[in-house]
Fold this protein.
Amino acid sequence: MSDFWSKRRVVVTGGRGFLGSYLVDNLLQRGAKHVLAPTKKEYDLRLGEAVKKMYDDTKPDIVIHLAAIVGGIGANRERPGEFFYDNLMMGVQLMEVARQRGVEKFVSIGTVCAYPKVTPVPFKEENLWDGYPEETNAPYGLAKKMLLVQGQAYRQQYDFRSIFLLPVNLYGPRDHFDPRISHVIPALIKKCVDARQASEPEIVVWGDGSATREFLYVEDAAEGIVLAAERYDKPDPVNIGSAFEISIKELVSLITEVTGFRGRIRWDTSKPNGQPRRKLDTGRAEREFGFRAQVDFREGLRRTIEWYDHHRRAD
């Protein structure tokens, strides 16, 4: 273990959230002594004065910006303006004040939603500007994508060290299972476990099941981000993924099997599928900073389902 992290003060925005909590755990395991995870109640990062106060109070050497307004297809369709404005304002101001204060390194966490709707599979980083994102989450994807533009511009003009990472869809224990904001895996787990407990005859799933997705276990994502923060220092964006692709239909079948739900699946084809396919080329992350996902998908699902089942009964 290097002493890289023990010597630096690290701010993780969104550090009390799903991915952020694992990232903080990872940093502490690596010997970091000063990891700060400011909350929205303490600092509303959409507001310039709050951003300045956060930097005054925390004095970071490295900022890892995870904080975001996020949700599944439904939430993105209902709140596109909010998803655009809040995410853009947080990121732009955080990076600008970091530059002003002489922060050593800024790590921006983007999203797979930034890729064009139709992108050759597997998605390569150089395809990022080949078209407009899938419409249901374009405002969110573009707001996050602006951090890549900002970081590259700041590196060119100010020699500011900013990197941009593109994680694929994450899953794991501690995820958000509230159906108003949850992504596909926690939403399906909740539907199947709740239906099994209530002996319901069927669950309803959006779309027709043909879309494919790539999923990354949250602990793997945290590891990839920490490795990049320590070892990577180039303007080019980097995918963070598992290189494993599965259709929504196959995913539903696997989740029903592991949760023990034996009822019918009704596909609501009046609802959107979202982007047709998602699978990342993860070669750059492995070449540049030695990241490769470790957790098998079925094992990750089992851990996630066990966590949800336990906390559901505890509540």
